[in-house]
Amino acid sequence: MFYIGKALRLSDADFARLASAYGIEEAALRAVAEVEARGEGFYSSGALVCLYEPHIAYKYTSGSIRNALVLAGLAYEKWGTKPYPKSSLPNIDRCAKIAGEEVAAKSTSWGLGQIMGFNYPALGQPSAVAMVKWFAESEGNQLEGMVLFIKSNPAMLTALKAKDWAGFAKRYNGSAYAKNKYDTKLAAAYAKWSKKVATAPAPPPVTVPVSPAPPPAPLPVEQSPAVSPPPLPTQPQPSPLAALIQFFTSLFTKKA
Hints:
Order of helices and strands: HHEHHHHEEHHHHHH
Mean pLDDT: 87
Largest sheet: 3 strands, antiparallel
Helix content: 40-55%
Organism: Phyllobacterium pellucidum
Number of helices: 12
InterPro entries: Muramidase
Pfam family, one: Muramidase
Distance between the termini: 137 Å
Region (Disordered): 209-238
Domain N-acetylmuramidase: 26-193
């Protein structure tokens, strides 16, 4: 089914990551998640939390397909015509068989923020089914979907960043927000999370390995001064007289 994925649960790292990525105070983001989001984004079966809306299915169909949905009790013109069933999953499956998965996805609210499938363009998704599959991967994706939905309304995003809870609740919940005290609930949740986030222990410092210092350069070895070899003894040269005597001696020796 297109509404079943990895079903990863929400983590503190998701809040920190999204708050940093979208420039929203983490305590404010946690307050919105606490008040406006469901407690969980997945059923115990792993299926994405959802609520099928027959009046939306009626709006997004026509002709024979709409007639088939009406006959099956899966579409009607006005909200509240019939009570909601205990589980929406069977109706989603039946709608998908009659009108296709895209109509079923558009006609249902999904995940932590219960975002209607027809809002997929505001979340940067190519289709309602693609949005649902993205939500089915993790509650972190569902929370990011809420942030993107808020971001698509600049006035709503401005109110959130300014902690204007009445202005935010009016745009997120409609004009009847005060009746359900959404603004006061958001303010109280923000006050609580401001203290918790401020006192949260800092992550342990990252130890950066230090490269060992290079070994010291070897000390230069003192060389002994070069000793020149002693000069070879020179043969004494004979005197002129001795040379003359030697000449005559050799001459007479040869004649004898």
